Amino acid sequence: MDTFAARRNIIAFVILLIAVIFLVKLFLIQVVSSDYTPAATNNVVRRITQYPARGLIYDRNGELLVYNQAAYDIMVNPQHLSHFDTTEFCRILKIERSYLEKKLQEAKNYSRYKPSIFLKLVSSETYARLQEKMYKFPGFFVQPRTVRKYKYDNASHVLGYVGEVSDKLVDTSSYYKSGDYIGASGLEKSYEGVLRGDKGVKIYLVDVHNRIKGSYNNGRYDEKAEVGTNIVSTLDIDLQRYGEKLMENKIGSIVAIEPATGEILSLVSTPGYDPGLMVGRQRTRNYQNLQQDTLEPLFNRGLMARYPPGSTFKVMNALIGRQEGVLYPGTTYECHGGFYAGNFHMGCHNHPSPVDLIESIKVSCNNYYAHVFKRILQDAEFESISKAFTNWKSHLQSFGLGDKLNIDLPSEVAGFLPTVDYYNKYYGKNRWGYLNVISLAIGQGELGITPVQMANTTSAIANRGHFYTPHIVKRIEGEETIQQRFQQKHETMVDSVYFEEVIEGMDLAVNGEPGTGSTARTARVDSITVCGKTGTAENPHGKDHSIFIAFAPKDDPQIALAVYIENGGFGATWAAPTAKLMIEKYLKGGPDIQWWEDYVTSANLLNKKEEDEEED
Fold it and tell me: I need a labelling partner for 222 at 20 to 30 A (CA). Which of 76, 323, 484, 544 fits?
């Protein structure tokens, strides 16, 4: 019995001890500690998210491109709503009563206890008028934030814009909440994690009239917002603006790269749009209008449009032919109006004949490159045309063609290089030969190359066999270097010794004497040796597309670029003089002869596109 009594006393003691511990803990929580006070006083405090200012964006020379300006969201908490003067409220905010009723119902459906956005991005002027009378409108409060402001109405496809987060992202993210904003395109999207900063919170005491009376507990529970990190882009805004000026009333793209680094100096896609249209309460409407525009101003042609490269591609076949030992500097072919094989005929324009390797680039001979491509595919080193073709394709891929370059901008697409399987499916396995794919010799057929890939290939030629992945960010504030992948040198499969002959041909194409067949004399620049190659891509829907690739100076390349103008006709007509002007702008500050600028800027090729569509 004594043992039982002892056990009973021990159990009673333990229960009593636990009870005392609970009582002491409750006393500490409710009387001594203030740690849980905010949770218990939700009805008298207001938590206001502190949205950080996004990082600023500069051009390569320190010119400010994107900054922030103040804006305000009107928030509503249904739990605190009571009778108010709806007429005066609508008048101050310049909204209809129907909008007020609709948004209040949506807020109640969302949550009767959590605040939600009633009206987005109210101006500073409207906010000032409302703030004076906020005490009259219980349940409403103002949430400050910043919105983007653009110094120039240029570079919209590069800089991108900020948009509201999707419901899907809100459901899966611990950072973003409904009503938050996120980079939706361009640099804003690619570097969202760098630019956005970190949100904070301020807790205020409010009275029964919905008026803020001061910081709660001297700001003990506040969290400071961390401003986003600034970015220095590789863009030269003067060159970018000039390129957009040259491309007014034209459809196409200009991509300019610094060969020594892979830094993108300019990325023009036209038609474009004013990035300021994507800011403020009219953003949704403006976006819809842009999306419905038949000229597709939201479409970034520099990264997303796949074009046949036309005769610019001849330099690639020349390099591959030299590397594979089926072409030599002294290899010559006579041209009598084109390439003939049985009943097949590929035409060519009138030019001096015969021509060797260098002259073939200078005069852009179709016949020459039909023979070169035939020899590449019939190379005795390979036991079948399929293996020779696959080897040819591998060379192209080493220049960054056919795949994504993985630049630091979103929406880049891979180009298209046809495969052996592609032709096997179309013609039947082992039932096709060089004549079936001969159009690839002159950059036609199934090839699809983006302007940024064309510019990158030109950089590789300028560098005599290597390139750096094109990128748009030069420096992130607080970081010593750019990403490692942008510092990595990519070697092509063509030995550096074979580039000089091709470059010599590109030099003569631009700087050859009049009457000698040079195809790109419209790209000549006084005192600077420009090396280039024209291209004219067939367009089944209308006038051919005008193409030009170039780099300069010849022996110290500082800029390499690709110009693609839809419905522009011959490469020398519009693309070459456009490239000439871009080179002069970057290396000399402006055009040597104003006439050339007037010639390019006065052209309206949009009308030509519309005429072609009507004929179709």
Answer: 76
Q: Dump pLDDT digits (tens) for 155-194.
A: 999 999 998 888 888 888 888 888 788 999 999 999 999 9
Give the count of beta carbons closer than 10 Å to the beta carbon of residue 100: 18
- Per DSSP bridges, beta strands 181-183 and 162-164 are antiparallel
How sure is the predictor about 616, in pLDDT bands with cuts at 50, 70 and 90?
Answer: very low
Contact 74, 93 (CB under 8 A): yes
**Residue ending a domain, choose from 150, 185, 220:** 185
Structural domain for 114, as ranges: 69-185
- For the record, the structure tokens of 21 come out as 């511990």
Cβ atoms of 302 and 253 closer than 8 Å: yes
The CA–CA distances, whole Å, from 245 to 160, 286, 356, 593 equal 19, 22, 39, 17
Residue 287, CB half-sphere, CA atoms under 13 Å: how many? Answer: 14
pLDDT score of 450 more than 50: yes
Structure token digits, residue 92? 């101050």
d(CA 364, CA 142): 66
Cα 54 from Cα 160, distance rounded (Å): 14
Bond preceding residue 354 cis, omega within 30 of 0? yes
Same domain membership, residue 381 and residue 469: yes
Q: What is the CATH number of the domain that holds 246?
A: 3.40.710.10
pTM for this one?
0.87
In this structure, are residues 443 and 454 in contact, taking their beta carbons and an 8 Å threshold? no
What are the tokens at 463? 């560098």
**Which tops the pLDDT comparison, 16 or 454?**
454
Overall number of domains in the chain: 2
241 secondary structure, DSSP code: H
CA geometry: angle 316, 322, 323, nearest 5 deg:
90
**d(Cα 514, Cα 524) in Å, to the nearest integer?**
12
Q: Is the pLDDT of residue 199 over 80?
A: yes
Does some domain include residue 294?
no
For 81, phi and psi rounded to 5 degrees? -70, 140
For 268-297, letters b (16+ CB in 10 Å) and e give bbbbbbebbbbbbeebeebbeebeeeeebb
Per the CB < 8 A criterion, the answer to whether 496 and 349 are in contact is: no
Residue 172: CB partners within 8 Å, gap ≥ 6? Answer: none
Asked whether residue 613 carries a pLDDT value surpassing 50, the answer given is no
